[in-house]
Design brief:
- The protein is α/β, with parallel strands linked by helices and about 450 residues long.
- The protein has 12 helices and 17 strands.
- The strands form 4 sheets. Strands 9-10-11-12-13-14 form a 6-stranded parallel β-sheet. Strands 3-2-1-4 form a 4-stranded mixed β-sheet, with no helix packed on it.
- Strand 16 and strand 17 form a beta hairpin.
- The two termini are about 30 Å apart.
- The N terminus is likely disordered.
């Protein structure tokens, strides 16, 4: 399991519990030039400039690759920013994130906007960062140049995005974008909710502090219908598509059928859909509002079953922060509040807490949150603990608990749907290419592109 001699390594990790694709075992893991250069038995004689010995209660495992993060920088840095987002991510075991194209100003819908985003992110990258482009009405001509510039794919909305500078595409514009993206084998990622289904759902009850009113306003049918349209478009155009933040268990059979029919489709879900339940959300608790919404416990069971069966491929945070005032905590009005859950620092622990209760293993969690997400964006050097991969590693104590305190999180705004919850699993250390990330020191993350892995 090594590529060369036992000497000349920069770092050697020695741990009684190392999680690789072959399972968990006592191992020594060596790093050279930022890459994993050897994986040997725990007692192997691997010489390194530094030796990091981990305690028996922690697992050395691949860092999380979070492909769905709204950083909002530049333009809305009072919501979040690359400094706060990447420091929080590192504290939560995330070593790579892919930034969404909207909520920043300008949105990443042209190569000029991408250049602004990169210039902004570079000096603030405590972890590695890549970028999604955006598909909006009128920018079909920008998609190929953005692809060549290294974005990992293109996000679109099938209904209002929540911000006017990133408009949604209609049915014809969706097909047009799909045809163009298919022409260069790109990836289209879709926020799939049908506007007509939502318009016909009950909306007149707002303002309302009752979560059930908000839930009724974003029915499962809106997701189901929009996902069906995306699947039809993928069949027609051959475009690779990815369904973002699946919250409707009813959509799982049609995604499965599309996969079985050979459609190039993947799907993700999020910690808040897998760990929080509509039945438990108090009146006025707008920190739980997101779109699509957190649904009932029975629906949550279906999402976990979809993961177990491989129909849902991965878990991402969908970290979508805002300022406290936009959450309207003073009125508790679910109609007026911004829809988004802040969770990039908590995702791994939240998922592990619920996954273990349901009988899943840490290896499965790592597959969903690291290997599968890295594969989605074709970052072959990320997400796995194998020789030749980037030494993006975390030490994770799976039996240790902590109670969430929003004030202690590194997110810019102290609000979280997990406030006061006891979660299982604590990140003790995060290493990027073998170098430990210190959120109180200088950043050493890199900007990633689709073609080279780094800018």
């Amino acid at each position: 399991m090594t590529d060369s001699s036992s000497t000349g390594h920069e770092v050697v990790f020695k741990a009684r519990r190392v999680l690789t694709g072959h399972g968990e075992a006592a191992m020594s893991v060596a790093v050279r030039d930022g890459k994993i250069s050897a994986i040997e038995s725990y007692d192997a004689s691997l010489a390194g400039e530094r030796v990091v010995e981990l305690g028996e209660a922690v697992v050395l495992m691949p860092g999380v690759v979070d492909t769905h993060v709204h950083v909002n920088d530049p333009g809305r840095t009072d919501w979040e920013g690359f400094t706060s987002a990447t420091r929080a991510a590192a504290a939560g075991g995330v070593t790579t994130l892919i930034d969404m194209p909207l909520n920043s100003i300008p949105p990443t819908v042209t190569t000029d906007a991408l250049a602004v985003k990169r210039e902004t992110a570079g000096p603030q990258a405590w972890i590695d960062i890549g970028f999604w482009g955006g598909a909006i009405p009128g920018n079909v001509g920008d998609l190929a140049p953005l692809h060549e510039a290294g974005v990992f794919g293109f996000k679109c909305f099938t209904l209002h995005s929540g911000v006017d500078e990133f408009p949604h595409v209609n049915a014809e514009e969706l097909r047009e974008a799909m045809r163009e993206i298919a022409s260069f084998d790109g990836l289209l990622i879709v926020h799939a909710e049908d506007p007509d289904a939502i318009e016909s759902a009950p909306q007149s009850q707002f303002p309302s502090t009752h979560y059930t009113d908000f839930l009724a306003s974003r029915p499962r049918a809106a997701e189901n219908t929009a996902i069906a349209h995306v699947i039809d478009g993928a069949k027609e155009t051959g475009c690779r598509v990815h369904i973002l933040h699946v919250s409707s268990g009813e959509a799982i059979p049609q995604i499965r059928a599309a996969k079985d029919a050979g459609v190039a489709i993947t799907a993700e879900t999020t910690p808040h859909y897998l760990t929080l339940r509509a039945e438990d959300i108090p009146a006025g608790a707008t920190q739980f509002k997101c779109c699509p919404p957190i649904r009932e416990g029975s629906n949550q069971d279906e999402l976990w079953a979809g993961l177990a069966a491989g129909t849902i491929d991965m878990i991402v945070s969908d970290h979508s922060p805002s300022t406290l005032d936009l959450k309207h905590l003073d009125t508790g009005d679910f109609g007026a509040a911004w829809g988004g859950v802040s969770s990039v620092q908590l995702s791994l622990a939240a998922i592990w807490t619920s996954a273990r209760e349901r009988g899943f293993t840490l290896a499965q969690v790592s597959q969903w949150m690291s290997a599968a997400t890295a594969a989605q964006v074709r970052l072959s050097a990320k997400g796995s603990l194998v020789v030749g991969a980037d030494a993006d590693l975390i030490s994770f104590a799976p039996e240790e608990t902590f109670v969430v305190d929003a004030q202690s999180l590194l997110h810019k705004n102290p609000i979280t749907a997990y406030q006061g919850k006891e979660l299982l699993g604590v990140v003790h250390g995060t290493w990027l290419r073998g170098q430990q990330v210190d959120v109180n020191s200088d950043p050493h993350g890199q900007l990633l592109t689709r073609t080279t892995g780094s800018a």
